[in-house]
Specification:
Elements lengths: L1 H39 L3 H14 L7 H20 L3 H17 L3 H17 L3 H17 L3 H16 L5 H13 L4 H17 L3 H11 L5 H17 L3 H45 L6 H44 L3 H11 L3 H4 L5 H14 L3 H8 L5 H11 L4 H7 L4 H15 L9 H6 L2
Length: 450
Amino acid sequence: MKHYFLLSILFCIALVGCSSQAKRLEQAQTLYEKGTLLREQRLSEEAAKCFLQGLAALQGCENNDQTLLLKGLLKDNLGAMYNKHELFEEALNMHSEAIACFRQINDSTHLMTAMRNCGRVANSLEQFTQAKRYYDTAFNIATLVHDQAMVNDLYLEMARDCYLPMGNYDKAIECINQAMKGGLEGNDLDIAHLTLGAIYYYINNYALAKQHLNAALRSERVGVKMSVYQTLHAIAYNEDDLENAIDYQDLFTEYMLKVQKEHSSENMQRLKAEYELKTQKSEMESQHRNKSLKLYLIIAISVIAFLIILLIIRKKVNENKIKSLEKELRMQNKVMLSNKVFVTAKSLGEQVSAATMKFQLSEEDWDDFVSLTDLVYDGFSQRLRSRYPKLGPWDVRICCLAKNGFSNVVISILLDTQTESYYKRKVRIKQQKMDLPNDNRSLEEIINEI
């Protein structure tokens, strides 16, 4: 009887365990579905919260096919949210863990999507060669499973994210044409026309460029329209069509202000999201399989108390250092505000208007700007030229602007060039002038280390 009694207890425990695991799986599935719906509504913070809670619900569940599939989907979607909020390392880790889940269950379809998402993160990090490897893997899977929609998307993304930044225009055009033949539509089709318009502008085929740019104007996205009008302005200016050039410049300025307004809003959301997402991630990782609420509370209170103590100690230690840095920054700002290039760039960064766009900078202004940058940053340009002697005067000026923290949009306006052309020039400076073709760091990271 005693043995029967023990077996009965063990059987009941097993039943409770199975029931508990089924409930956690059901809860995680519900959170995943809710998160994907919120993601479609562009509510990224709320979506990420659901994905994190879904992963927490799966803690302690047996790693069978159903659990691994759900874990992979949650992590892949969470990685996309991290990438949107510029948490690139966290995003790459999440997508990589999703890939591991999908490989364990031999799920080619979701593995293909996770590989593409890794390519997007690598592109955000300006690691174009690595992005191409991820895209190639996803493309091979899409071809094998005959997923034409994914093939079309990958053709477009490889053209835009890999071949265009690397200057391989023929291959970029070939990929976009393949994508369009496959049946692109909606926003993807608008982006394809925009990219073709930019490429044909670079190779001086203005007729084809205008044809594709006008087609891209059907887009409802302000960022797409801003880029279209920027390229149309450059074409009109090169064709001496000054009347249209002025009109396109006004439209470009109008949409650039809208884009900057959106980006400003996104940056505020990003700051909020970074805190919330990291807190939720920490809570998820600290959860224990033990269901004891008392133990959870003790751990949480201990961690919070420890963090508060660390923050207090750090604040005490760094208080004088922060004050010293603030004083130094104020002194640097006063020195740089005596230069016309710095004042003009600062004005463009704060507000773009007809008045701020009408600036003229002389060689003396630029020389003074480089000299003041040397004064503030302890001979920066001399150290830069010594390390990279191939750099020309304008290359040094660009590096000085980046050293002072000005954005790509502001620098491209100061150089009277398109933002896409400036990106291309940065790549050329890094690969050809600095002889760093295999360096994974961005140009700004290289400059800030000098």
